[in-house]
Design goal:
Blueprint lengths: L40 E4 L2 E4 L11 H18 L4 H13 L3 E2 L3 E3 L2 E7 L7 E5 L7 E4 L10 E8 L5 E8 L5 E7 L5 E9 L5 E2 L5 E6 L17 E6 L8 E4 L7 E7 L5 E8 L6 E6 L8 E4 L6 E7 L2 E6 L7 E6 L9 E4 L5 E8 L2 E8 L2 E8 L4 E4 L7 E4 L8 E8 L2 E9 L4 E6 L10 E9 L5 E9 L10 E4 L14 H8 L3 E5 L9 H5 L7 H16 L8 E6 L1 H12 L6 E5 L18 H4 L5 H10 L13 E7 L8 H13 L6 E6 L10 H18 L22
Parallel strand pairs: 34-35, 34-36, 36-37, 37-38, 38-39
Antiparallel strand pairs: 1-2, 3-5, 4-5, 5-6, 6-7, 8-9, 9-10, 10-11, 12-13, 13-14, 14-15, 16-17, 17-18, 18-19, 20-21, 21-22, 22-23, 24-25, 25-26, 26-27, 28-29, 29-30, 30-31, 32-33, 33-35
Helix pairs in contact: 2-10
Length: 728
């Protein structure tokens, strides 16, 4: 989850219910570390709710540290006994070792892009004057920490091409520090900003400094858990200390408002997008930078829709908005006549879902989704269709950034079996030319991608991608990894993944449904999976599992589910509601305590999707599906590997700690319930390559054991030996 740029069937039973089942015979269950219980009960609207593992919320407590150490020892001991783990890690390392690039962008007469030569922990930033020049290294994050745990969190180049402002994140934390590098010399200036979170940087047109947002300094001991309120927008002037930064805008009366400042390409205006948590609505204010001491002017202040600023013609501002257009439209607002009746429709709502828009070479480039696949169209600034961009195939395209004076733009294209290639696009001619194409050690022709549509519990049609080796037998014996998210208007589209490729090489099937709660079909699709309707998301996921089983792709004994963050909640909720349907579950950095999530870091911002236990009706819905609160003693739960990290200040690890302590106590069968707690890592962004490989090897290794997969020394499946799960 991200604060704006940052789930059941119970096909048979109602929400929050578990299906009793007979635990299969297996070997002796694991002996879990002791998890003490405390007498902690809370009253929610007259309902008494016990929270016996509340002490695990104190990450710095001695008891918690001892518990973490004991759990990690158990988990690592279990994983080390898995024969396939080493072969999987070796194959992942070989697959991961390929050159990859980011989409280039141009600023100040230079091109900038990042490159990873294969196994570097972090990608390296380069710059060139001309595309065919030998690249010059500008910033290597790998030199910032020996173990690769400091990552770039954002960059912004000054309009004159002299300076690079860059943010860094240590150990995966959302807290960022920003510095400035002289591009010509490659050396940092004295400028240093702290306590920046959920913010980029936007330079003044004269390159004198930049706008950014930050919070007040937190308490050092609790900075990874304390709630984040009262963000403020500042201007940093080059060569001055942060203490001299000018406060541009704040709202002491609105603790939840967040501010994102953006200077228009002509340098005349500061556009301020005001968000409230992850709500898919925002306000827009602006400031005339040409007038000294000009006041901040509200332009769109009703908080009634999303308005993403694209570009401007002087006082006429262009927006991508879902106002009266659930799938998005392009509108123009003249700030001299800002009344809604005076707005001009440039590109009306279409059948496809509008994801983003840019202006390049006096043209609008629109990025849309058609059944979760990319569609790119070019329009004039008056809204006349010029052409549809011919993409290399069915997949995901991203990029198309630039300025209206640019004649070119760049984009990447990827699919489930297509590593991301970079293309240069000539806006005038409509011609795409290949700029960079990675070479990965696999044969894409050996795999196939299908898209199916299945019915959820209420009859809603849901799309799902299924990727596997060609020619698999539909006899119910295929180990299958069903992955989902379903929230926060986020769309899951085809993308290449070394991790998933390795899984499929081992004979696994990868399935990705586009659940309600996401953004694949616009506002209505998103809202159908929020608050009191959140159960729809779980129904969709369980419906995907049932379709895969009914169509003989897999069986409950061969089916694993996974997801991260909000997807971790998805996995937790569905495994609790339908433990009979899955053999394994891997909830990653999940939101598991739906009654207290809003009390930590930026969790309050998720109430737009989830609701809040402070509201009586929303509490009832949350309590009905909260993974932590719906675990039941004496239930046979799937083999479970929970993953989290000690520096996760997005979804604090206490969610995972409390869930695992409870599931271990309640597990009636012998299937393992383990937790993998990474160190010097966070919610996932910026995780070093080495840590990613280790985590994936542990994840797939775990599944080979609990799903009964037999893996050859080269990491491939052993034919004919995918029958019964191995004893745990």
């Amino acid at each position: 989850m991200y604060l704006k740029h940052a789930l059941a069937l119970s096909v048979i039973l109602g929400s929050g219910a578990s299906i009793a089942q007979q635990c299969p015979a297996a070997s002796q269950p694991l002996s879990y570390p002791a998890s003490k219980k405390v007498d902690q009960t809370d009253d929610y609207h007259g309902v008494k709710v016990a929270d016996p593992y509340r002490w695990l919320e104190n990450a710095n407590g001695d008891d918690t540290k001892a518990w973490i150490e004991a759990q990690n020892k158990l988990t690592q001991g279990y994983l080390e006994t898995i024969p396939a783990r080493t072969a999987i890690r070796d194959r992942l390392t070989k697959l991961w070792n390929y050159e990859r690039f980011s989409v280039p962008f141009k600023e100040g007469g230079r091109y900038f892009y990042s490159r990873n030569d294969g196994l570097q922990n972090q990608a390296v930033l380069y710059t060139v004057k001309h595309l065919n020049d030998a690249p010059r290294l500008l910033l290597d994050p790998n030199t910032l920490a020996a173990d690769g745990t400091v990552a770039l969190a954002g960059i912004a180049v000054s309009p004159d091409g002299k300076y690079l402002a860059y943010g860094t994140a240590a150990s995966g934390s959302d807290w960022n520090e920003w510095k400035v590098r002289d591009i010509e010399s490659g050396k940092d200036t004295a400028d240093h900003l702290q306590w920046v979170k959920f913010s980029g940087a936007s330079w003044a047109h004269d390159s004198s400094g930049f706008f950014y947002s930050r919070y007040d300094a937190p308490k050092e001991a609790t900075k990874l858990a304390d709630v984040n309120y009262f963000q403020k927008l500042y201007f940093h002037k080059m060569g001055t200390p942060q203490s001299d930064d000018v406060l541009v805008y704040d709202r002491p009366d609105q603790k939840e408002w967040g501010f994102a400042g953006h200077v228009t390409d002509d340098g005349k205006y500061l556009i301020v997008s005001i968000s409230q948590g992850t709500e898919q609505k925002n306000r827009v204010y602006y400031k005339d930078l040409g007038k000294k001491d000009a006041a901040m002017q509200p332009l769109l202040d009703d908080f009634d829709a999303s308005y993403d600023f694209i570009d401007n013609d002087g006082p006429v501002f262009y927006f991508n908005s879902n106002k009266d257009a659930p799938k998005g439209s392009i509108i123009a607002i003249d700030t001299r006549q800002p009344q809604a009746a005076k707005w001009k429709m440039i590109v009306p709502e279409a059948q496809e879902t509008l994801q983003g828009a840019n202006v390049v070479d006096q043209r609008l480039v629109l990025d849309s989704l058609k059944d979760a696949r990319s569609q790119i169209k070019v329009y004039t600034l008056n809204g006349k269709l010029v052409r549809e961009v011919a993409l290399p195939g069915i997949g995901s395209a991203s990029g198309f950034g630039g300025k209206r004076s640019d004649k070119e733009t760049f984009y990447s294209f990827t699919g489930f079996t297509t590593p991301a290639a970079i293309y240069r696009y000539d806006v005038a001619t409509g011609k795409s030319s290949l700029y960079r194409q990675p070479k990965v050690d696999f044969d894409p022709s050996a795999f196939e991608t299908r898209q199916v549509f299945y019915s959820s519990k209420d009859g809603t049609k849901v799309p799902m991608f299924i990727v596997s080796k060609k020619g698999i037998k539909l006899d119910g014996s295929n180990p299958t990894y069903l992955y989902g998210y379903g929230g926060f208007n986020i769309s899951l589209t085809p993308a290449f993944s070394v991790a998933n490729l390795a899984w499929m090489e081992m004979g696994g099937v990868y399935a990705l449904p586009n659940l309600r709660g996401g953004g694949e079909y616009g506002k209505a699709w998103h809202e159908a999976g929020t608050k009191l309707h959140k159960q729809n998301v779980f129904d969709d996921f369980i419906g995907a599992a049932q379709w895969l089983i009914a169509n003989k792709y897999t069986s409950p004994q061969k089916l694993a589910i996974g997801g991260g963050s909000n997807g971790g909640l998805l996995v937790g909720a569905t495994m609790v509601q339908r433990p009979d349907l899955f053999a394994a579950a891997i909830p990653q950095v999940g939101v598991m305590d739906m009654l207290r999530f809003h009390k930590f870091t930026i969790g309050w911002g998720w109430t737009s999707d989830y609701g809040s236990s402070d509201n009586a009706d929303e509490f009832k819905a949350l309590y009905a599906y909260s993974p932590l609160h719906n675990l039941k003693p004496g239930t046979c739960y799937p083999a479970t590997l929970v993953t989290t990290a000690d520096h996760d200040d997005r979804v604090v690890p206490a969610h995972s700690f409390k869930f695992v302590a409870t599931e271990q106590a309640d597990q009636a069968g012998a299937a393992p319930v383990l937790i993998r707690i990474d160190t010097k890592a966070g919610h996932g962004a910026g995780k070093p390559t080495s840590k990613q490989i280790e985590e994936v090897a542990d994840r797939w290794g775990f599944l080979t054991k609990v799903l009964g997969m037999h893996v050859a020394p080269d990491g491939a499946a052993v034919a004919g030996e995918l029958a019964k799960p191995a004893a745990n």
